[in-house]
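Contributing new records

If you add data, match the layout below exactly. Sequence lines come first and carry their own label; structure lines follow with theirs. Keep one chain per record. Anything else will be rejected by the validation script.
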Amino acid sequence: MSRHNAELAEFLRVMRARVRPEDVGLPAAGHRRTPGLRRQEVAQSAAISVEWYTRLEQGRVGSPGTAVLDALARALRMSESERHHLHLIARGEAPPSRHRPAPVGADLQGLLDGMPLLPAYIVDFRFDVLARNEPAAALFGADFGSGETANVARMLFLVPRIREMQLDWTRIARETVGNLRANLARHRADAPLRALIGDLRHRSEEFSAWWNDHTVQERTHGTKRLRHEVGGDLTIRYTTLATLDNSDQYLIAVTPADAAAEQALRKIVSSRAGALARTARALG
């Protein structure tokens, strides 16, 4: 038995011994020589033959497929970390991620609100804007995150005001197409994502052409030039930070690329803050 097979076999035996029959809806009564589930119970739950599973636990078969590993992870009530470890020791590669939709948590929202000078916002794998801070509204518009600007990809291709402010529009737009194609590979069954892509292909010739050339790109940081009615032309950096809870939420932060951009951002942010203060006084 190879070391690789031995590690997988031992891990499966330990996981099986940990699960109590009542945890999976089986009666706890009756004599059991060892703790946990029987091999045939695991095999039945995972829809595989007991003979094959027995050989797997004995280290006498090759690497199982990803679908079988996921079935075993469910049968043995593994956590996401344990499922990840199972795939690594069985196949030497991480498993496909499982999307777990969730609202923006208080911690992430607090991080956004705690960035009073830097535009930042949170998107999901569809590029829907889930939350944004006031500096982001100052940079991209008061309606950013709602209506026609509720989705970053859609606003980039379909909202003229946003397109005009992007001085590197072609490069940024192509990056967005590549990111969407990469995201679709991970979320093939997601109907809203497919609907978004279909809508963009129908309404934008550029999007359709770039989609058809099968560009795949996952750019998480870089620089771009913007033209803003208050701050003028400025060069900014953008950085994408991913969450690790399988919610597929990403925080995108904008920082100035130079001293001139820093001054421009301050002017943009302070202008919106002043406008909000005047509105509050008028309403008060």
